[in-house]
Each structure stands twice: as C-alpha cells, then as structure tokens.
Amino acid sequence: MINIPKGTKDALPSESYKWQYLEGKLRRVASLYNVREIRTPVFEHTELFVRSIGDGTDVVSKEMYSFEDKGGRSITLKPEGTAPVARSFIENSLDALSLPLKMYYITPCFRYERPQAGRLREFHQFGIEFYGATSPYLDLDCISLAYDALKELGLKNVVLRLNSIGCPECRKTYTEALKAYFANHLDVMCGTCKERYERNPLRLLDCKSPICKNIGAGAPKITDYLCDDCKNHHDVLCGLLKDNDIPYVIDENIVRGLDYYTRTVFEFVTNELGAQGTVCGGGRYDNLVSSIGGKQTGCVGFAMGLERLLMLMEEQGVDFCPTNPKVFVMSQSSTYAGTCMKIVSELRRNGISADTEMTGKSLKAQFKYADKINAEYGVVIGGSEIETNTVKVKHLSSSSETECALDELTDFLKNN
C-alpha cells in the first residue's frame, strides 16, 4: 500500500463541503471589496523567492521544496503567495492598468516543516494583494477586508494586533539598537536566535523559547525609531481604524521574517486554539516589486491559512451548511431503474439536487441510504406509480407523505 506523504492531508468527500463553504465566504467578501482573483503557477524559479523573501530567512534556508528540472533550472514549489503575484504584476505589465489593482488568491503552498495541528507541509492560503498606493487608506481597506472576512466566517474572540516596522532607513538604526541589546544575552539564548542575530535580527523578537521571549520583552521598541514619515503613516492608520470601528491593540513585538515588509504589519490572533495562534498575517511591502526587477510600487496585503481557519471554525461550532440532495428516487425493482434515472435527470435539469439507486439495493436498503446521505425527500417508483402517473413524496425526517402527479413532481419539489 502506498501512503500519503508526511505533512499532507486528503480533503475527503465527507469534509470537502467545509472547504467549499469557507472558500465561498472568502470569495464573497473579496467581491464586495472589488477584488479579483489571480492564479499563479504552483512552482516558480527559485531565484524569485531568494530575491524577494531573502536568503537569510528560515523559509529560504531551511523550508523550501527546491529541485532541478530536466533543463537544469532550479525550481521551487511556492512557499507563499505574495512573491508570485509580484512576479506576475511585473511580467504582465499590470501597472499599466488603472491603479490601485486589488487581487486575491486561494492557493496551495509548500514548506518543509515539522507537521503539527494546523501546520502541514502542503497547506492552503487565502491572500489579498493591493498594488499601486502608499497611502494608509489602502492599509485600512486591506485590514478591513480581513476583519470582515473573519466576521463573515462566524469567528469570535479574534483580535487585531498592529505594529509598524518602518522603512529600510528606520530599520537600519533599529537593527543596530537591537543587536547592541541582545549582544549581552546571546550566551543564554537558543541556537536559532544566535543564527538570527547575524542574519535577521528582527526575528529575535519572534522567538517562542521562554528564555528568549523573556529577554526580548526588554528590547528596544521599533516605534521609538520611526522616522517622521513612517510615524505619521502609522498614526493616520490608527485613526482610520478607530473611525471605522475596527478594534486593535498595538503589539510592538510583531515583526516579519520576510525582507520585503515595510511600515505596517498586522496579525489577527486568537486564544481559541489553546496557545495564542495567528489566523491572519499581513502588512505593507513597498519594496517588493522593485526588489525583483520592477518599478517602485506601493503594496499591502495579507494571507490566511485555510487549515487553521477550518480548525477554528470547527472549534467554535460554525455551521458549515452542508449541501444534501433534495430528493432520492427509489425503485421497487431493477425493472424501473431506467424510469428512475429519467426522473432524476429531469429534476437535475430543473435545478433540483437529486440522486437514485444504481447498485441493486433492496427498497429497505435504499431508504437507509437515503437517510445516510440526508436526502430531504424520498420518492418510490413501481408499477402502480407508472400506471397511475402519480407518486407519493415522503418527507424523510418527519415521515409525512404527499401525493402528486408524476409530471408535477418538479414543481412540487421547487415549491417545498
């Protein structure tokens, strides 16, 4: 027997309706914000992620699925959705369109990590990418979409946490201050942080080790190092969030391990999954497009992990509204199977979800099957029904019956 690869998961027919419900809700909210879908390939040239994410990040150095194709090119299964959208924006000259350009994606991503609840090696993201403005109003629109999407999914106790990591000039000064602070603590910090000290000092604030976390609590705050422009951008955004009734808390420890982030960074977090968990992460990345060969372009966006969203929705008892067949047409004998198929075809063509017996089950077994698939109505076809051209429509949960003409069955089901 060949088993599924470690860190991947099947979406079985008994569960796939939850994915469809979730994705449908997200698409609906995106359409309300005039956001259109973009689809990029599952794999890209490795250079795209090295240049955009940065070779000093854990994603590039440890987690990417990279391989050499038959042409000798280094190819990578995409570990995130933002860089491929930026590549497409440049390659397809999307900057020639009316800006801002607002896009979303629902895509699989791949990272070689230790599998755990809500974190797989193949996972799925819903992401938003807004291009073409540096204004905090675009930040507000992006955060507002995330806020409304989480409400649309029926989620409770999710908190918006907000920070600014400034521009490259702010960060240069701040990084020096961080390194000076942590230099006195390196001997007791974890091995990962010792590596990050040289490669990516901002990530020192992101460590989950209790010792490192305790040390990081006393580190300098980025908001004390913001230049005037970055501080004004942050202050305006905070005011806009208040004006639009989007509650938030400032969290000066929010950082990003990806090099392309600038200014606004945010997360929606919850304690509903046990330890505090992030269900949405995003921010502004005005230098991303230029870092991979395009023009300087203001960008802001976010990504939500669909597996984690599903876990949270299940934990909070969200009703996923499964779709069940409206009617199951049963045959008293295999002699009438063709008639049942004809009735079912007619119902389907009129927009009514219907199914029928195809495996030779007895009538009793057909009723059991109809109950198992949660059909709303059952219709039995036999000799007398064909002779009289009438059928009894049984409401399976209440056992009530209604008689109607066979040629009126479609209208009856449409109206009930």
Radius of gyration: 27 Å
Low-confidence stretches: none
Beta-strand segment tally? 16
Strand content: 15-25%
Structural class: alpha+beta
Count of DSSP helices? 15
CATH topology of the largest domain: BirA Bifunctional Protein, domain 2
The strand line-up of the biggest sheet is 1-5-6-11-10-9-7-8
Helix content: 25-40%
Shape: elongated
CATH architecture of the largest domain: 2-Layer Sandwich
CATH superfamily of the largest domain: Bira Bifunctional Protein, Domain 2
**Residue-averaged pLDDT:** 90
* CATH uppermost class of the largest domain: Alpha Beta
Distance between the termini: 47 Å
Task: Summarize the main sheet.
Answer: 8 strands, mixed
Number of domains: 2
How are the elements arranged and paired?
Elements: H1 16-32, E1 36-37, E2 43-45, H2 46-53, H3 58-63, E3 65-68, E4 74-77, H4 82-91, E5 101-110, E6 122-131, H5 136-152, E7 158-164, H6 168-182, H7 191-199, H8 210-216, H9 228-243, E8 249-250, E9 262-270, E10 277-284, H10 288-291, E11 299-305, H11 306-315, E12 327-331, H12 337-349, E13 354-356, H13 363-372, E14 377-381, H14 383-388, E15 390-395, E16 401-405, H15 409-414
Parallel strand pairs: 1-5, 7-8, 12-13, 12-14
Antiparallel strand pairs: 2-4, 3-4, 5-6, 6-11, 7-9, 9-10, 10-11, 14-15, 15-16
Helix pairs in contact: 1-5, 5-9
